[in-house]
Each structure stands twice: as structure tokens, then as C-alpha cells.
User: Fold these one by one.
Assistant:
Number 1:
Amino acid sequence: MSSRARGPTLRTVMRRSAALALALFACAGTAASATAGPPLTVHYSTPAALRGLHVTMRIAPLGIAEVIGADAASLRARAGIDWVEPAVARRHLGSAPVFAAGPPTEWQYAATRANLVPSSVLRAASSVIVAVVDTGADLTAPDIAAKQPLTYSAVTGDTAVTDTVGHGTFVASLAAGATTRNVFDGFGGDAQLMVVQANSNANDFTDATEAAAIVWAVDHGARIVNLSLGGPDTSQTEQDALAYATAHGALIVAAAGNEGQNDNLVTYPAALLGPNGIAVGASTDTGTRAPFSTAAPYVSLLAPGVSVLGALSSTAPTTGFTRAEIGRAGGLFGYGTGTSYAAPQVAGAAALVWAANPALTATQVVQILEQTASRHGTWTAATGYGVLDVASAVARALGRPALGSPPVQSGAMTLQSVASAKGVPAIQLASVR
């Protein structure tokens, strides 16, 4: 495996007692003040340190709480408070494509050779849980409903995860939408789907809800956690949550960022993952990096991220996607563009690799996905190890030779060729809005 830099290494965290439960919106003692103000995140060494504070969220396994109505200086002066930091905003990394003509259907599935994975491996993936930390999901969307996902909201603390944004539904369908309906195929085969809502609107999405969602997912059996989210800053809260997941053997897959046309600004949490996670950039139909996709030392590989097909939420506006009429009944579908939609394809592929060889560690799954991508083990900042090749990764996990040619080469598989094979018009790719 290449010795390239993969971003800062996550600091080691001690595994706390399994008896510690994740408690959200818990108040420690009587709130001294409910004054509105920007939330602050604190690390506490004892619950007594939180007495008298207005605690809106507590992540007990990490010893982290979110507090409002207090200033940083007074919090730092408290006995038992180790550090204080402001909330870090998070956003989603996807947008709508613009078509010049009617698009093909699920071209990304064939482009990554996910369609060549043995059915036995697709079925075996039922032993793997893939968690999508996002805006929730429309549980009535047929390809999601068929999975009967385990759900939890880190925003409200209950099991309702209504997706009023639409991003989470799209991402969840790509990661682990049902493959048994012959309408749309998620990348994870029969992998179990877990939907963990980290935000319900643009104003409640921070590193604290992200961290709470990651910890809950890991504590409830998630082997793979997809994070199609990010921002230009990180925090100790986010780093502790990622380290917690790594310490528990989970694999984090994150979108690399859409800053390719903005000086390739670093995007977190992708830049934090190191060799135990996968930062995913977006590729085009020709197997090249999409112009908007961030090129950086932390990028692992690429997956289709331009005009990919996914499920739409019936409880969210569809303005963020281009509606698709795929000619088969059952659910709403559309096209989206961004590294947000490349990442869940890799998350689903990771589930298949683990299904093929359950004895693998998270780091070994990462290595297999990287080494079987289209650049055959060589890395560049622009493309990472190349485009995801699901069938070759599964073959490697099974101890068999990888398939001969890469899934996509420049000019080898265009949207025109995919469209012709499926009998539908091709499209002209447009820049991301």
C-alpha cells in the first residue's frame, strides 16, 4: 500500500464501559439559564461538571456534551471540564445536474461493475450493517422500505427520521437500496440499512449531531458508516467520534468534497480518515475526476458522482435533483451530482467485500477497495487509486484474481454507450451548479 499522506492520524481513545449509554437532550441538574446563544461543546471528566448547565445533548461514550447559555471562559474554569470549543457547521456535498437531453438510467452500476458481483455475495451481505448518517430517509420509498431499516434521530432522540431535505434518502438508496425489486439497485446487496438522522434542516447540522449519530450507529452494530457531509473546519468532537468508530472496528466512508474548482480546499471529516477509512471523490462517465471533485492527498478513490440515479423523498422538495422517469412503477427517482453520491457507492461496495470475507479488518477492506480500483495500485492526487471496481474488489476478497480490465477508462465507457445498451437517450454533462 502506498505511503502517501492521508491526513492527520486520529488520536487514540480509550474504550469506555459498555454500560455508558448515549443520552440526547439530557439536562444535568437544574438549568441555570436557557438563554439562547451559540452552542458550545465541552469534554467532561465527570457528570458532576455539568450541574447547573443547560445541556442540550450528551454523548456519554465520548464524555462530550453540548451546552447553551454559558460562555467559554466560565466553562473552562469549571472543575471537571477538560476543553471547550464552538460548534462546527456541517453541510451536504451534493447538487442537481443539468441535462441537455434525457439521461440514461442507473449507469453508475455498470460503470463500477457492481452488476458482476456473484449473487451469493449479494445475499451474504445481510450480515453487514451500513449506517447512513444524514438527513434521515423517506421510509416509504420502496427501495428503502424493503430493507426495513433501523432508525434513530440524533436531533430529537427518537426513531422518527422523516427526510424533509431529500439528501439522506438519495444517499441511503445508493448505499443499500434493495436489489430485489428489479427497479433500482443499491450497491450493498442485502446489507442491512441503518438510517441515523444527524440533521433535519440546514440550521441544526453541527459536528455535535454528527458525532452523536456516529457513536449511536457504532454502538448499535454498524460496521460501515457513510458520511456524505463536510466542511472546511474540524473539531475535537468530530475527531473523537471518528476515533471511537475506528477503535470499535467500524469503517468510515466520507465524501472527499466538492472544492475542485475552489483551490481544492480541505474538507472534513474526509481529511481525517487515514488508512482506516475511505475518502471518495467523484468520477465522470469517462473515468476521469469530475472538475468539482476535490483533489487532495487524503482522497482514496473515485466513484461515479455526475448525474447518478437515486431515490427521492416524497416528504422533501425535489428541487435539489433532476427528476427521472425510468419507465417502471414504484417510487420517485432523480439524478444528483456531487461527492455526496459517490461515497455511498463505496460504502455499499465495502459491505460486499466484508460479505465475501468476514474475517477482514476495516483497514484490509480499505486496502482491497483501493488496490482493485482502476489504477491497479498506483495513486495520484487527482484520482486517488482510480475508479471503484466492485467486482474486482469482491473477487480479491474471495481469494480469486481480480477481473482483467478496469471498470472505466477514458473513452471506454461513456454515457452514450451505456445509454445505447439500455435503449435510452444519452446526455451532455453540465457543470455543477
Number 2:
Amino acid sequence: MLVIAIYENSEKHEVTVKCSGEEYLITQADFRNLEINEGDFVSEEMQYILETAATKLACIKTAFSMLSYNDMSSGKLKRKLTQKYDKDVAAEVTEMMRERGYINDTSLALRYAESFYSSKRWGPARIRSELFSRGFSSDDINNAVENIEDMDHSENIRTLLESKYSKESLSDRDTARKAAAYLYRQGYESSDIYGIINLIYQE
């Protein structure tokens, strides 16, 4: 197989390598590393390298498309890319996105945690669980939730309670237990939960 034409797109930083029977769209950086020219013979090894480079560029484009719709952690991006691409390619592209600043897990985890706490009124435990499901590392989760754990959760717990239960209904033990279970699922500790339930009932 011979290289019959090479087309560079400097604006997109892409190069099309046209061979007899095949065509490969790769990054300019990969093309520079290959050092191939029109008329060169393409060995099986070089064909494999071109195929891998083309797959990587396709994976990069997919990653950009995914990130254009939603912010996501590096873990989640890699997991989604792996559904379509080889895990090593997905890992390489994810790391590239992180190194170039398209992904910042630390700041994103913090933004999510603050939003979950202020908007959804979730407690620390549920926030941790949600961040874990979104592919954040333990270090980023700990950093994001650390300040929230030290906060007074009274206002959030009260808001959640009053949205579902009346003051009078909390005098019933079964209702109070249901309310406590609900708040526990929202991520709060029992000591905080029963303190607010008792306080509301006594008002």
C-alpha cells in the first residue's frame, strides 16, 4: 500500500493521509511524528499506527462533543469513551483533556457539591455518593465536601421537612420515623435529623 496523497488542514490541526484503498484522518502532531511522505510504502506496522492515530482523533472529537453538552469528571468521560473506543485510547484522550485544561475535576466537584447542597438541599453523605457515581476521585470528593460537613445543616433539614410534613404530623411517631428516614436518604446524620424534628415539634 502506497501513500498517494496528503492533505493538511492547518485550521483544524488535522491531516488526511490517503493511501491506495484507505484514508486516515489524524492529528498534525501524529503526522509529524510519523514522518511519512507521498509515494512512501506503508508497511503493516505503519498501517496499524495510522489506524490507531485515526481512532485517537475520532475519540478526541467525541470527547469534545461530550464536553460541549455537559461538564463531567475525567472518570466519567473515560467511562463513556470506553463504551466506544479501546480503553487505552480512551485513557490517553481523557488525560490529554485534563492536561490541556478542558477538565478540572477538583473545581468541578466543588461546584457540584455546592450546587447540590444549596439547590437540592442534599446532605454530605448523599453528595458524596452522587460525586462518586459521577466518576470523581476520593481526594476530589473529600475536598469538595469537607467544608459542607462542618456547616450547620439546620436550615436545609428544616426546609426539606417542611416541604413534606406539617408540624402537627411530626407528633406521630410513625410519621416522625418516616421523616427521619427521608432525611437520612437525603444525606444527613441522625443526630442532626432528630434535633430539628424535635425542635419543630416543640415550636
Number 3:
Amino acid sequence: MKFFIVCPRGLEIPLAEELKTISERAEVKALGAWVIDPPPANSTGGLGVAGPMSVALAINLHSRIASRCLLQMTHVAYRKEDDIYKAVRSLSWEDWFTPEQTMRVDLTAHRSPLTSLNFVTLRIKDAVCDRLREVKGARPSIDTELPDVRVQAHLTATHATVYLDTSGQSLFKRGWRDDKGAAPLKENLAAGILALTGWKPEQPLFDPMCGSGTFLIEAAYRGLGIPSGAIRAGLMKSKEDASNPQTRTPAQEKTEPSKFTRYRPTRVDLVGADQGFGFQRLKPFNTPEFKKQWDGLCDVAKQDIEIGLANANKLKMAACDINENMITIVKSNWKRAGLPAQSGVLSNVRQIDALVAKSPFAEPGVMLFNPPYGERLEIKGGRDGSERIKGRGARDALPKNNNSPEFMEFLNQFGKHLKDNFQGWQVDVLTADMGLPGQVRMKESKRTPLFNGPLECRLFRFDMKKPGASSLASSS
């Protein structure tokens, strides 16, 4: 089978490394070998993988960077809309889902000669529905919000590729986020950035502008070896799951199997075990063979979780934010993620101005943060919010030369704070402000182009001078 693994643009290289690691896990390797495409020269937003159908099980459970795992159904040449319609209608959709289930069709294109992508989307939907009506005597309903089945298509200048989405809701929706705050960072982007920093679990990690705690929680999951899909797989109960009588555990599924269960999260971003993954609503993955494979992967993951949680006190992590409400959100999300409140990490999560924040650890480590713009750039004790940068969204790009004297002064002071108090640290900053190095008056050692949704960003790295070193940073 062929798959396309979607990821945020700019993270193709760490995704390839992660997929290789997943494919080499003993329990995954026992189900069949994978062939992973090399990372492309240009950002494509994903990678191809060839392998057994169990690829979908492993990626949905373990990939921290992937957004979706798409199973390829067909790849055909086309010249007009009818060519795509005929190719899609010829597929045996009845082998994958039933007319009683709901569906949605999404389409992307790159240099397609067709003039109306909306019309192509409609023709693909008609092709699937016409096939099921012809074979089963009924057609599925369309649900654009929370469909049981998602059909994805991509058009190039000459070819159309049609996929079934095995993930369902995007994989960045882990199931632990209770509140996003003003400027959320998607969990899989945060995980990819962590991979780019080279942070190791034994190193200190510090986020001085933590927001809702995305970097912190993603780092904890990675450091403890907890699968990113643990909550959605029903392996680790979030606080909401524990109080939700509708949540079905894996044990319940064995004794009270529910075929193609409909699902409705209480919040758009809340995805628990009852919503699971898209492949769990597809016929082939509900056979005894694949249920056994899934149970096997989950059994190993449970062991990893148990070992990881037992070692939570070994994490050297800290975070702060100037907004007191954000600290409350971080602690709530941490608990919802199933992480132990007694681990010691939460005692290092405090409401402090980044301009005076210091690491609680004796040795240097990695500082990682996503500077807030707009709403969260409020300094308590002297700044009442009236000095905000006006007319800018929480993640709108800043101009290369920002003329706000308050913001310039903030960055200048923060750069000095880093030099004085974080000697020997590696500092990584995700920002849409391309002029940030000049504003903090430091030379970056590395810059990596990334995209936070449609917003072009840079991950800047600053290697802080150690005591006695002759230069602040080396350029590469």
C-alpha cells in the first residue's frame, strides 16, 4: 500500500527521521517493512511511505509530527473533470465504508489546468456516492464538520491522486488541550520544532513565554516515551475522558463492540478515546486480523507509558508566562494530558515576566519559545495593556523593522537578559519577525524556514556565549 504522510511545511526532514524510528520499533517491524521516500529538496508538506496497511496504525499512534496519514486509493492521469469522476467511481468504496456513514471530500491542487476546483470536489463526491448507490442501493450523507470518512484528493498539472484519510481529525489534536489561550501553537508543529532543536530528555528545557504550555507538554510526552496518540487510542485518560460516560475504553470495545460509531466532541479541539482515529471507522481495519495488530501496538505502548510515568521526576523542565491565566491553563492542560502533578515540573511553572525569569537548573540547556504578539504582549506592573502593538493579530507577521518603541525596547532588554543570565544555553525562537536577531542584537547561528499554518516563520537559533568564550555565537 502507498501512503502520504502530511506534515507542517518545513518539517519534512524531521518527519523522515521520525518515520524511520517508528518503522524500526520491534512491534512495528514485525508487521512488515516500510519504504520511506527521501525528504524533498523543496517543502512539500509531507512524505510518501510504502508498506503494509499497519503503517496507518503505527503512524496514527506514534507520529508526533504528522498531521494526517492518507492511504492512496488511485493515481491517474486526467485532462478533464470526467476523467477524475470515472476513475473515482471505478473504485470499490463499498469495501471501505457503508452508505450509513457520513463523508467529506477535500481537494488540493498544484498547477492544475482545471478552472473550478469546487466543481472537481463535487464530481469526486458524486462519484463515490454514485458507486455506493449502484452497489448498495443507498448513498452516504455529507458532513463537513465531523464526518465518519474523509476522502482527500490532490491534483497536479497531469495527475489526480485520491486518498482515504486514516486519521480522522488532524493528529495535532492530541486530546489534552482544554484551553488554547490567545495564540495557540499546533502540537505537531511544536513537536517538530523540538526535534529540530536537538533537545534530549536529560537536558534542561525552559520556555519563558509558555502560553498554554504546548512546548512543555509535547516535550514531556517525548521525554517520557508516551505516544502522541495515547489519549485518542484510549491508553491514557485525560481529565475530560474520566468524567465523560460516553468514552469507550479498549476493554469495552472488546466486550461491547460498536460498529462505525458516530462521534461528537464536546469541543472542536477536544479529541478523546471515543473519537479515536479515522481508520477505526473503515471496514478493512475492523477485521480480526487488524484489530489484533492494533491491540498488539497498544499493548507495547501501554508498557512504554507505564515506564515513562514512573520516571516523570527525572524531567528537567520549566516554564513561565507573564499572564497569570496562562499559567492556570498550562497546569490544567498538563493534568488533562495525564501527566503527574507531583512530577516536580509544575512547581517550575510560574507567572513571571520573561525579562526577569531565570532557569531553576544549575546546568545550561535548551531555551525554546514562540514570542507572543498582540494580546499576550502585556507587561504587568507598569504596562496595563495600553502599550500593546495596535491592530495586529496574535500571530500576524511583524515587519522586518518594527517601529514600535515599546516592542523594540522589550526585545532589546530581553536580548541583554539572555546574555547576562543564560550563558552556555542554546536558545531557539520561532517567530514571524524576520528582523528579530537584529532587534535582540544577537547573531543567529542557524535559521530554519517553517510555516505556522499559512504564516511564514523562522526558527532562529542563538548559541549563548559561555563564560570565557571569545564570541557570542558562530554563524553557519
Number 4:
Amino acid sequence: MAALETDRPVSPYELFVGLRYTRAKRSNNFISFISLVSMLGMALGIAVLITVVSVMNGFQKEVRDRILGVLAHVQISGLEGGLTDWPAIAATAEANPAVRGSAPYVLAQGLLGNDQVVRGAIIRGILPGREARVADFETYLRAGSIEALVPDGFTIVLGIELARALGVDVGDKVLLIAPQGQITPAGVIPRLKQFTVVGIFEAGHFEFDSGLALVHMEDAQKLYRMGTAVTGVRLKLADMFQAPRVAREIARTMTSDVMVADWSRLNAGWFRAVEIEKRMMFIILSLIVAVAAFNIVSTLVMVVTEKRADIAILRTLGSTPSSIMAVFVIQGALIGIFGTLLGVGGGVLLASNVDVVVPFIERTFGVQFLAKDIYFISELPSEVRMADVTFVASISLALSFLATLYPSWRASRINPAQALRYE
């Protein structure tokens, strides 16, 4: 095999011929059509790949931010039962410079009823004054106030979907049924307590909006007979991505038997599933780019067949096999470069305007891509990362270059005498 001299720079003559072959009107229009299809196919594959990866980046970031707006970066809970010395545990945790705030909580399950409607919910007992240190409920409120949760007031704040399902608004009454019952001669009777709705929040995360209710921590402790104990302590960090390291540091400083878990462990299944899905989608869509790139092979093979006489003449004029090979490598690479540039531009433009394009498609065709009751969010987010764009463009250019090697090598092996015999 005649090797291409990679250490020798491409001469202006080779670049000129390669560019001329790319621009020239060929007698065989079918070859021009195949070249155009290869270029557009690569551009479309790259644009789709960049758009899908950006949407998955945005989906992951959006859900993560919404989850952490309601949950915590780090959570400290008792290994057996609740924590009775939570103030000391919170103080120890806040001694770490990475911790911005802490708040105790009580977590339990219950049934909320209004009229003939009953819904299951997660009941979270909080201290309103400290909850703002670790969560963003104030920004999510659509009506009422978190500060209206007062001790012995038996007031409650509901997620917006939960409030709609129960048919209640601020000022209405709901009945909270706790699973811990009272033993009587007639059997076990559930504990019932009427609460007044003083707030409605919308976190933008269907799981929380449809199944989370907030009450004052002391009311939760009384209702669930926990005394002065709490379920755990929630922490907010200066940098959420340092949560695994900070959690390990806090665990080493604790003298009580507690479990310290960061948000990546508490939601490990979901984040792992999203990451696997993202990688699989990247591999699948990369195959589209690969198919388009290797269409360059068929294009160059046909070009080489058509240009046999030209190649023979160039050889008789003194061109070396490596020069002939460089001519067709340049021609194939130009198809790949133009296709890549077109795809990157289109992909970045589309990914940056998903919030406009998707609603337009939904209104035009009367469809909904993300239903609230199925997906975590109802809007399609997007986050364009230049590292992903660069990686996609690099793969595309590499595949385009590899696709030119075999046809270019075949062109360099053409025998001038045989090629000109019937000309």
C-alpha cells in the first residue's frame, strides 16, 4: 500500500485540485447528489445529536435543581428511630465551613381528606424559621405563607396538585389521618386531626406538588407521638457538587449513631438512570453520524472511478501516489467539514431555542410531549455545553477523515497506462 507522507505538508497544487474537484460541475450529476446527501445527512445527524444531548443536560439540571429546592444537599437521620439531640447534631454539622444552614424535620405518611376525596401524602414537619436555610419554599409559594405554620395552630401547606385533587384552597379545612392509631375496645382507631390550609406551593416537580404537605414540626411530633424527637436534620451546602465529600467529613465528626447521606446517594437510582440513558442516546445517535460519514466512501469511490483519466494524466505529469491520495482526502474532508459546520450551527441554534420550538409544535399539532402526571417536569429544558458540542464535532471530523482513506488509497494505486488505454 502506498503510504501517505503525513510529515509532508499539503502543497498548494494538491489543495487547488481537491478544491476544484469539490466545486466543479461534474458530468455525472448523481455523484454530486450523493455528495450533497452525505453532507446534509452528516449535518442532520450532528444537529439531532447536539439537540438531544443538550435537552438531556437541561432535563438533568432542571430536575436536580427542583429536587434540591425541596430536599436537602445532605441529610442526617438516626439509625434506629428519631434523633432526640438534634440541636447538638445540627451545631456539629454547621461547624463544617461548607455548610450554610441546617433545619430539623419530621417525616411521616398520612391520608388527607376533604369531603369524599382522600389522597395519600408525605407529611413533613418543619420549623418555618429554619426551613428557609435549606429549602426554597418561599419562592415556590403560589398562595399563603410558610410563616403561617405555628405551633398548636394545626395549619398545613399543600402542593398545588394535591390541593387541586382535594378541591381546597387557602382557608379551607382538610382532615389528616395518621396511621398510628389508638387502641380501643372496638379495635384500632386511626388518629384524626383537622388542619387549616394556610399555603399552596408549586415546586414544578409533580412528585412533590402532588404528594407533599408541610406542617409545623411540633404539630407533627404531637400527631405522630414522637415527643421531642425528630426524623433527622437537613443541611444546605455552599457547593452542591461537594456534597459527597462534605457528607463523609460530617460523618467523621458525629459522636452519635447517625446516618449521613448526600443528595447523590438519596437519589442515586434516578441520576444513574438518566446518565445511562444519556450515554445510550449518544451512542445510538452517533451511529447516524457514522452512517452519513461513511457515505463519503461511496461518494469518493464514484469520483475516483469518474476521474481515472484525470488521475492518470496527473501521474504522467509527475504527481506522486501520495499527492493523488492527498487530493481526494482533501475533497472528502471538505464534505465532512462543511457538514460538521452546518450541523453544529443548526444543532446549537435548535438546542438554544427548544423552549420556543417545542411549544410551537405542541400548539400546531395539538400534542403534549411531557405530561405532568408522567414526567417529572412539564417543559422541555435545554442546556448547551460547549464540551459536548466540541466532542460531537471532533467525532464527526474524525469519522469523515477515516472515510476518505480507502478511496484515496485506491486512487493512488491507479496505473496510468491502464487508465489511458481506452481514452
